[in-house]
From TrEMBL, chains A, B:
This is Salicylate/benzoate carboxyl methyltransferase. It comes from Noccaea caerulescens (Alpine penny-cress). The keyword Oxidoreductase does not apply. Keywords: Methyltransferase, Transferase. Residues 9-19 have a biased composition (Polar residues). Residues 1-26 are annotated as: Disordered. GO terms for biological process: methylation.
Length: 289, 289
C-alpha cells in the first residue's frame, strides 16, 4: 500500500508572506503539524517497506516515460540549451523508484544535448517528500544512481527537500522542471463532511454522494493550492509532468472500479472492530486521505 | 566522539568534466566509494548518538557565533540586500546542532533587513554531510526550527545535500554563503606514509615526524581541493565562515596537547588487541582520518 500522505501545513519552509487560502493560528498550526509528522511511508528496504513494495508505482513511471522524455526535450529547447536547470520530483518516496525519473531526465538531457552538439547543463535534482519520509534509504541508493550515470557528460547534484508539496518548498522563480508521479491523489487533510460515510475509509459503492463530493472538494482545493505554489516557484517556460490516478467511469462516481481496493480495506477494518482488535471509536477516525 | 568522516570520491554528484587533481579509474572509484559509504556518525537521538553527544560541537558553534553574525551582515551588504541567497552548511552532522547555525543566519538576516527597512531575501538552507549521515533525524527537528523562526518575516527552504565536501556538491556560481563548523579537520582518506606509526591511530608524542608530515600533506591536499571546489560553486562577493580545530603549540607538532585524546584511544585499542577483542592485523588498518 502506498502510504504517501501530504499535509497543507508548511513544515520545512515557512513563508511569512504566504498568500495561501488557508491560514491557521499558531496553536492550530502546531496541532496540524503534529498530525502531518505522524504520517509517513514504511521506511527502510525490508520485506514490508515501501521501497520493496512499490512495483505498481514503478510500472506507472515506466508507462509515463515517453511523456517525461518528450517534455524534457521540450524544456531544453524552451530554455535554448541552458547552462543550468533545476528539477524537482515532488512526493518522491524512498527507495530505488525515487531516482528512476531523475535518471531518465538526466539521461534524456545528455543524449539530446549530445545530438545537438551542445554542452549539457548542470542539473540540480531535488527530491521532495514529507519530513518523515525515509530520505536515508534513498540517499543510500545514490551510489547506484551515480554508477548508472557515470557516462553522463554533465554534472548533476542531488538533494532531499523535506516538506509537503501543499506548502512552498522552493524559492520564487527557481524551478525549471517539476515532476510528480503517483503522489498528487493524496490529500492534505481529511475532507470535511464525511459524517455520513460511517465505517468506510474512503468512497464505496454504498457511500452517499456527499462523500464523493467531500473528497472532490478537498482535491480541488488541494490541487489549486499545489498549482498556485508551483506557479510561484517555477520560471517562465518551465514544464510540469504530473502523473495521476484517473477514472475510467465518469458517469457514476461511486462505481466499483474507482474504489474497490479501499472497500476491501474498509471491510478488513470492520472485521478488526468486530474482533475487538480496534475499538469502534478509533475506527471512526480512520480515513484515507 | 565526533565521527564525521569525509571522502574525496564524488558520491551524490558526478562531474564528468571534473578538474580535480585526483582522478580514479571506474574500479578505483567504486572501491573508494564503498570505503566512503562505510563511514558515518552514530545516527538517531539515543544515548549513544552523535546528536546526544555533541555538546563540544555546540560550544564551538556558540563561540564562533559573533564571527558568523558579523559575516552574515557583511554578506547582505556585499550583495546589496538581495532577494535571494543560498547558504550551505558543510559537514552539518545530524541532530539539533545541525540547524543552530542556519537559525542564527536566518535570524541575523531578518533583524538586519528590518533594521535597514529592507525586505528580507528568500533563503535556501542547504545542509550537507556524507550520504550515510542520518538526515532523517535532522529532518525530524525541522518543525522545532520552524517554530523557532515563526516570527521570521522572510521565507526559507531547507534541503539535505548528501555527499562529500571534497567533491562538487552545488552548481557553479550558485552559493552565496558557506559555513562549516568543526568538520574540515576530517580528511578525505588515510594519509600515505603511516607505516612507521605502528599501533597508533593518529599522531602521538612518540610518533616519527614523518607521521605528522603525512597528516599535514593530506590536510593540505584536501583543503586545497575544498577551496578549489567552493571557488567553482560560490558567487563573486560570497562569504565563507570556516571553524577549525587549531593548535596552541606551533613549535612542536608532536606536543601532547595536540593529540592526547587520540593517544588514549590508541592505547585503548592496543588493550583490545592484547585481550584479543581485535586482531593485530585488523588493528593495523585503524587510522583516524
Amino acid at each position: 500500500m502506498d502510504s504517501r500522505f501530504t499535509h497543507i501545513v508548511p513544515s520545512s519552509s515557512f513563508n511569512g508572506n504566504t498568500d495561501q487560502n488557508e491560514k491557521y493560528s499558531d496553536d492550530e498550526e502546531r496541532s496540524l503539524y503534529s498530525f502531518a509528522t505522524a504520517l509517513s511511508m514504511s521506511g527502510g528496504d525490508g520485506d514490508n517497506s515501501y521501497s520493496t513494495n512499490s512495483l505498481l508505482q514503478r510500472r506507472v513511471l515506466s508507462k509515463a516515460k515517453p511523456v517525461l522524455v518528450k517534455n524534457t526535450k521540450e524544456l531544453i529547447i524552451n530554455l535554448n540549451f541552458p547552462k543550468y536547470i533545476k528539477v524537482a520530483d515532488l512526493g518522491c518516496s524512498s527507495g530505488q523508484n525515487t531516482l528512476l525519473a531523475m535518471s531518465e531526465i538526466i539521461n534524456t538531457i545528455n543524449v539530446f544535448c549530445q545530438k545537438w552538439n551542445q554542452n549539457p547543463p548542470e542539473i540540480d535534482c531535488c527530491l521532495n517528500d514529507l519530513p518523515n519520509n525515509d530520505f536515508n534509504t534513498t540517499f543510500k541508493f545514490i551510489h547506484l544512481f551515480s554508477e548508472k550515470n557515470l557516462t553522463c557528460k554533465g554534472s548533476y547534484f542531488v538533494s532531499g527537500v523535506p516538506g509537503s508539496f501543499y506548502s512552498r518548498l522552493f524559492p520564487r522563480n527557481s524551478l525549471h522542471f517539476v515532476h510528480s508521479s503517483y503522489g498528487l491523489h493524496w490529500l492534505s487533510k481529511v475532507p470535511e463532511g464525511l459524517e455520513k460515510n460511517k465505517m468506510s475509509v474512503y468512497i464505496t459503492t454504498s457511500s452517499p454522494l456527499s462523500t464523493y463530493k467531500a473528497y472532490l472538494n478537498q482535491f480541488q482545493r488541494d490541487f489549486t493550492t499545489f498549482l498556485k505554489l508551483r506557479y510561484e516557484e517555477m520560471v517562465p517556460n518551465g514544464i510540469m509532468v504530473l502523473t495521476f490516478i484517473g477514472r475510467n467511469t465518469i458517469g457514476n462516481p461511486l462505481h466499483r472500479d474507482c474504489c474497490h481496493f479501499w472497500t476491501l480495506l474498509s471491510k478488513s477494518l470492520r472485521g478488526l472492530v468486530v474482533e475487538v482488535y480496534i475499538s469502534k471509536s478509533k475506527r471512526k477516525h480512520l480515513f484515507l486521505l
